[in-house]
Amino acid sequence: MLGKIKAKSAHNDSLRMLMGKYGIGIVLLIMMVVIGIMEPAFATSNNFINVATQVAINGMISYGMCLAITTGGIDLAVGAQLALTSCVLGVTITNSGMNVWVSCFIALLVATLFGLLNGVLIAKFNMFPFVVTLSTQLIIRGLSQVISGGKAISLTSDVFKNIYSGKFLGMPIPIVILIIITIIMYLLLHWTKFGRYVFAVGGNVNAAIASGVSEFWTKVGVYTVSGFLAGVAAIIFTAKTGSAQSNIGIGYETDAVAACVLGGTSFAGGIATIPGVLMGIFIIGFIYNGMNLIGVSSYYQSIVKGCVIIGAVLLDMVMNKRNR
Amino acid sequence: MLEKNTDGKNEYILQCEGISKAFGGTQALKDVQLHVKPGEVHALMGENGAGKSTLMKIVIGLHKQDKGTITFEGKPYQVKGPVDAINAGIAMIHQELNPEPHLSIADSIFLKREDTVGKFFLNKKKQNERAGEILKQFNFPYGPKTLIKELTLAQVQMVEIIKAVSSDARMIIMDEPTSSLDSEETDHLFRVIRELKAKGVAIIYISHRMDEIFQICDTVSVFRDGMFITSAPLAQISRDELISKMVGRKVENVFPKVDCKIGDVVFKAENLCGKGFKDISFEVHAGEILGLSGLVGSGRSETMRAIFGLDPITSGKMYLEGKEIKNKNPRSAINKGICMVNEDRKNFGLCLLRSLRENISLPNLPKKQRGILINQRREIKECEEVAKQLTVKAASIEHEAFSLSGGNQQKVVIAKWIMANPKLLILDEPTRGVDVGAKSEIHSLMCQFAAKGMAIIMISSELPEIMGMSDRILIYHEGSINGEVTRAEILDSTATEEVILAKAFGGK
């Protein structure tokens, strides 16, 4: 008798864990079905490929943001990183006529170094990530205005533009990049020592240190990866628009934070999953896409986006009630 | 206001009668009493966990008693919290002072009873004037506008006392008031206490320092295991009598201690100094359980944290298996084979939101890698094995740590260190907050580890535990080792609880 009761409660437990883990997937499905019924053009493979291509940019940024939030921080500099990387690309390719790949390498290096700088400032001096990245964001955007002279630099190189519009094995390259980065991030967070340390530092920094984890290197690693991913996002973005500008990426951190939160990343730190964040990224993408198709004005889109995020987080709170 | 009632009826300012209090299943207080006269300094004594703090928390309204009555100044007394207690005339100066560092002295003194203009606006001018007068009465060297953060700890404490007196407190409770004062500051505090006494203020003085008790107090009440033992004027009681009253019980042999073969020296400390401890030298052998006894705050945990690399060591040498070592951080200690179960499980032991598996393997990940990835199959297998070995009761190692009971959580903490296969395992209060069953299981595990040749250091504030489990006990007193007893001495009763406690209090 007792055994039965125990078995049942264990079953409830696993159901709860399942819902807690994949509840957001259900939200995503319901949303797709509703939009699909309202607008048949939504449920076409063309449209899905379209969405996946568009979300690749936010995807890169969101993965970096997810790491920062999981360690109990935040990276507000990603939007400015996008602008700086873009301007570095413009200056090196158009103004200096550098090889596209060399230029991409330099741009990624710059983004990664600024990520490293964020990490060192946060971990070495124990400053609040919010304040540090809020400030470096200003520096980074200022720098991008300095090197671009505040003007848009057009990029005409076909090799470069091909990064957005080209195909690899029949798939748009941004989707290929998204898939590769998703796999790498999944392995990084869930299958490596570094990932475990990220969870441990975010979950309980004292216990992590007492277990031999280096808080410094973990945090430095997190912001460096975030910087690198912002660089990747900037390459896709610049290839898409064909123009390097110092005023792009404003507000991109908001969508990234939203995708993380929707994907079950806890602001208290220590909880996140990469599949969750991926679903969050797609929910944000579908909100934009679906409403564009239905013909909702962009003013209302913003309102709807806010409501969906609050609703999803509330749902998550209710499902994981026993966790808190 | 405070004249003694000549008919003797209301001789006491505070009368606690038949107070009982239980927390969950633990009876913290059983039918205790306390009688304090106006104008006396009344010492409360007892071991850690004897019930002194619980009783004081009931008096200032932080807890509510299950049974019993309190009478203050002849009237029934029941308060809802510390602010209420201050209004009624009882203030408590806590051991860890926690004032707002950015407030001025005047703001701090009048906190929660500010002078106001109308309902909302502070009357800073009047407040500063009033505070200035009060400070002058106490010959306090700073003005009312000085910020709290500019003061020394002793001065902050004085501000707290001034605050209590200025709010017309007729009774002040002081919990370990001298724990962070030097001797000059202590003398000054005692002068102030005597002045308060002369004004008829009653003082309840909680301290572990025997010398001070005899120096400043008039009467002592002794508590043990949540019970009231005795109350007597200090003039009529000796130091030894006091200690034996505090201990009072027989050592029961309920501990599963198995005598193991004691091997070579594993770890040796030579004249270690650091924050909270000085000149610590000892050796611990393979297969030995070395107990560290002493009062809370005597420097035991501080020494062990420093050895484990959590805090710095300022001077001294450490040797592991004969080789000199230094531990800059816990990682270097773990790599060498020194592991530590921290006393504060929630803050230093577990990431409660993560799974048992992740918690157990956290310090051991460098050994579980295949290339750059974690070999999860091996990780799961090994975590399950160690969880089984330690009889962790959980449906699965994938459950989050917070879902487990305290005892099982503690086993998980031990499990992660056993997986690291340490040469020296340090256990700081390994059975605190653990139920009886799990407690004895943890004790059996300690014996198993020792039998495998591990050296174990156990800190415990429970005398029966430390006497029942240790091969050797070092006794700390105020940051230094003040004596050692062996298991043989315990077994033939030449080293009793009285002997250990006397050493812990600084005696010979």
Q: What's the domain count of chain B?
A: 3
Oligomer state of the chains in this structure: heterodimer
Count of domains of chain A: 1
Q: What is the share of helical residues of chain A? A: over 70%
Description:
The complex is a heterodimer of chains A (324) and B (508). Chain A is mostly helical. Chain A has one domain: Orthogonal Bundle (ABC transporter involved in vitamin B12 uptake, BtuC), CATH 1.10.3470. Helix content of chain A is 78%, strand content 2%. Chain A contains 13 helices and four strands. Chain A has helices spanning 2-38, 45-70, 78-95, 100-125, 129-148, 158-165, 173-191, 193-203, 205-210, 215-241, 252-262, 274-294, 298-319, and strands spanning 153-154, 167-168, 171-172, 243-244. In chain A, the strands form two sheets. Chain A has a two-stranded antiparallel sheet with strand order 1-4. In chain A, strands 2-3 form a two-stranded antiparallel ribbon. Mean pLDDT of chain A is 88; it is low at 1-10. With 508 residues, chain B is α/β, with parallel strands linked by helices. Chain B folds into three domains: 14-247, Rossmann fold (3-Layer(aba) Sandwich), CATH 3.40.50; 261-337 and 423-508, Rossmann fold (3-Layer(aba) Sandwich); 349-421, no CATH class. Helices cover 33% and strands 26% of the residues of chain B. Chain B has 18 helices and 24 strands. In chain B, helix 15 (436-451) links the parallel strand 21 (424-428) and strand 22 (455-459). In chain B, helix 13 packs across helix 14. Chain B is globular and about 70 Å long.
